[in-house]
């Protein structure tokens, strides 16, 4: 894979453009005091859709011509079953038009994510591009914090969530989007330091500082836990022990979070811990969403057709304002059930939990790219863990959904193919 050279190739530019569009978007530094944010809609949705369509088509053609065996390897039962079920839930959706539009965007994003790893000419170019991408996000966000604080730090004049005043958000629209992205940048920093120590440590340190300043307690704790667990797990040869170490936090976070709403015994344990037992109001959302998940257990309410729709915003009960106006369930696994029923959740777990775990183990056993594999393992683990409190899965072009897919597809390739490190290696 990847012919090499020292300069950035057009393929590499496309790689960079996809990540930049995903994270910086067409509306960086949004004004949270703008009343237009209260309107139901997706802002620059049409232009964003078109750009992702163009990027997806271009990237797929490039990868098809140079790396067809890699693309063909994605046609496995777990992926086909998952995305096939998405199509089914669009057809039976309570809002087929909304589901179809969001599924189309999902398709463009999946194609972009599936080809990202194949675009750089070699590993060295990917390292440079990831480093530059991280430095760009860091540079823009810190510039905003120091020179445009009204657009990069939550303010008391924001239209919603006034309690967030003072929390950093950088180029992003919310601290809960900023802190997970900066966690991804921290993982990039740890990867880059294996090739460029000073550059990598700069990325890592500035990312961790930003996560803390954003007030993202969950992201901070889970980011640091992911780093520790991933380094320990990389040294475990027994698959059962590895799976237990990596999987235990996933089960534990969901049990303490949404489990506290389901089982009173868990709620009593959570109340005794030194944390907010309501999980910053998330418990209200879980209590609101859980009964609705069981209303249509097979097909769900339709692909991404439950939250942020006209039926939800204007037809929900008025006695639970916070829950009925939430953007998502603040739990990706619960949202999967709401969108696609329990079969959809099982298919998701097969495609995006079990399959990547097998691919990571296979890639590590090959021993060819341990640092690159570790980067994608950390991204995968972090997103799975944080999704016990946030919701990224299938969320169209959400940065953490894209980076998650990037990680999943990348370990798929690393488990099956050998990549070229640099032109000079030939």
Note down, in words, how this protein is organized.
The protein is an all-alpha fold and 426 residues long. The chain has one domain (16-32, 42-425). The chain has helices spanning 10-24, 45-72, 77-91, 96-116, 123-147, 149-152, 175-192, 197-213, 217-233, 239-256, 259-262, 264-272, 282-293, 310-315, 321-324, 332-366, 370-386, 399-414.
Structural class: mainly alpha
The run of helices and strands is: HHHHHHHHHHHHHHHHHH
| Overall pLDDT score | 89
Distance N to C terminus: 12 Å
- Low-pLDDT windows of residues: 1-5
H/I helix tally: 18
How many structurally independent domains? 1
Count of strand segments: 0
Percent helix among the residues? 55-70%
Instruction: Calculate Rg over CA atoms.
Output: 21 Å
Question: Which of globular, elongated, flat, extended, rod-shaped describes the shape?
Answer: globular
Largest sheet: none
Estimated share of beta-strand residues: under 5%
